[in-house]
Amino acid sequence: MVRRTRNAARDAEEGIKDYIRAHGLRTGDMLPSEAVLCEELGCSRSSLREAVRTLSSLDIVEVRHGHGTFVSDMSLAPLLRGLVLRITLDSDHSLANLNHVIDTREALDRSVGDELARIYEGQPVDHLHRIVQAMRDRNNAGESFAQEDHRFHATLLEPLGNPLIKEISEALWKVHMQVLPLLDLSMPEDIKLTIESHADMIDALVADDPALYREVVTRHYEPLRRLVSAAAARHGR
């Protein structure tokens, strides 16, 4: 009986997704009422509600109590939650898993060097340098500059034509920042090198030098890599 119920809920999930596709619904569009969907999909209310709960957890639909169920923005939030859990669940491999995130972030940043150089060559970039200065000011005051770091990377990648790259980059940044405190890792002592590498990235792109940009990207992650390596050495991993 339980298995039949689960199968019915899974069928309802697929039915809702098919309905969204078939009717060309977009983010923010409202789905029909429970009664209409149950009739449309040939399922029970209990199966439909379980399906909606699952799709809500996957950020496919959004339930607004008192208003209805809407198509969500289908963000990468579920990926983020899953990665954070995956990294921290196995303490014996958590630092190695964090290194995999760093590797992926670096590879993604390096991969867009040519396109960013074409975009930023000879362009005014005062807005980016102001963000870097805000990082310096925060760090000199002994405060976290995570918000400014996030804004820098989002702003730098904003002109890219591929929105998925921007979404994945932001998701990995958030995974990275959520995992550090969970693993009891503070900012590296040589974090100033990371801050200054942001300014060097800008200069390399304005000079239309993607090769230098890629070198700077690698340098940008070196303090964090040293921090993770030191933590692994302390724990004998």
From TrEMBL:
Keyword Ribosomal protein applies: no
Family annotation (InterPro entries): GntR_C (IPR011711), TF_FadR/GntR_C (IPR008920), Tscrpt_reg_HTH_GntR (IPR000524), WH-like_DNA-bd_sf (IPR036388), WH_DNA-bd_sf (IPR036390)
First and last residue of the signal peptide: none
Gene3D superfamilies to which the protein is assigned, alphabetical: GntR ligand-binding domain-like, Winged helix-like DNA-binding domain superfamily/Winged helix DNA-binding domain
Residue ranges that the Swiss-Prot or TrEMBL entry lists as coiled coil: none
The name this protein goes by in its record: FCD domain-containing protein
Keywords: DNA-binding, Transcription, Transcription regulation
Family matches, as CDD domains: WHTH_GntR (cd07377)
PROSITE patterns linked to this entry: HTH_GNTR
Domain HTH gntR-type stretches: 6-74
